Please model this.
Amino acid sequence: MLAEEIIIKPIVTEKSNDGLQEGKYTFKVNPKATKVEIAQAVEKLFNVKVLKVSTMHVNGKSKRVGYHVGKTSDWKKAIVKIDTNPQESTYLTKGGKEEKTSKKYKDSIEEFMGA
Model:
C-alpha cells in the first residue's frame, strides 16, 4: 500500500488541536492499515520521526433524512506521536567505531491544518 493510500486526511477538532503541543497528530487512515504501515507513511510523507501510533475503529452514526434511516460508514482513526526534539543518535559499528545518524527530522508537521 502506498503512503498516500494509508493517510486519508487529517482530523482537526478542538481535542486534536490540544494534542499538538505534545506532538500528537490525528489522521483518518485506511481501515486495513497496520500501526507499522501508518508510522512508515507519516515518516515518509512529512519527514518526521514517529515515536508511537495509537489506532481505533470509529463506528458510523445512524442518520435519518425524512422517512429513510441510514448509517454513515465506519472508519479508522490514528493518533501519531512524533519526536518534538529530534537529536542525532550514535551507535557502535562492528569495528568499534562510533557513527552518528545523519538523517534530519522535522519537529512538527507544517502541512497539518491545525498547526
The beta strands are 7-10, 24-29, 50-58, 62-65, 68-71, 75-82, 90-92, 98-100. The chain has three helices and eight strands. The chain has one domain: 3-84. Residues 3-84 form a domain with the Alpha-Beta Plaits fold (CATH 3.30.70.330).
